[in-house]
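User: Run a structure prediction on this.
Assistant: Running it now.
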Amino acid sequence: MTAIASGTIARTTSAPTFLTHTAILTARQLRAAWRMPAFLVMNLIQPIIWLLLFGQLFKAVIEIPGFGNGQSYLEFLTPGIVMMMALFGSAWSGTVYIQDMQRGVMDRFLTSPTNRAALIVSTLVYQSLLAIGQSLVVVGIAYWAGARFEGGLVGILLLLLAVVLLTAVFCSLSNAVALLARDQTALIGISQIITLPLMFLSSAIMNTKLSPEWVQNVAAYNPFEWAVIVGRQALSPNPDWATLWVHVGLLAALTVVMAALATSAFRAYQRSA
């Protein structure tokens, strides 16, 4: 009886928990990113260029009747650029899975006691941490360039909540595509087909009130637009809280659906491995 109890305790204490596995796997990806600082810098260069360049080129559009609510174009643009960065970064996250599959790392994980859910969640946590850090940099540069966000700290936190939810949605989709296609070229092609239309069919750069009616109708069902609305409302001086929380709820619900899709894709990969 003592031996059985000892064995049970040993297995309990030696078996890493889901949280432990998630932390270890997230740290693995963070270390890989830390070894390639150029990758992190490159991910920031394009959104910063868009922020500063578009912010100057199109600053006069706020004078168009019905465009804005007294904000500068830079203040209007910043939430859109933040969400664009989260969208593009998360849409490419599946490349990590493909690299692990090509190197045999994924098969070693599957033959080890590694928690399967942690393999999925760690990628979401890693991408979310990167997105949060990059978002804060972009907001800081926008502030330096003259933008002022009346939403304060609460507004920044709600903006980051939208970033995390958007990242989780498209990271899950990217991971599912990677697990099913198992080809980096296919993943890149699918990501581009999805992300670019979502970006332009939104109010990230231009107020959809000035767009054709069909664009406005499509944007209403665009999850990227939901995140932009949350971010813009959060940073505005007088947020429409009902609109903000409705779109947070939509993003949260879609996150659950896409996480379930990624889990199903992972199980499909396991069965075929």
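The chain is about 80% helix and 0% strand.
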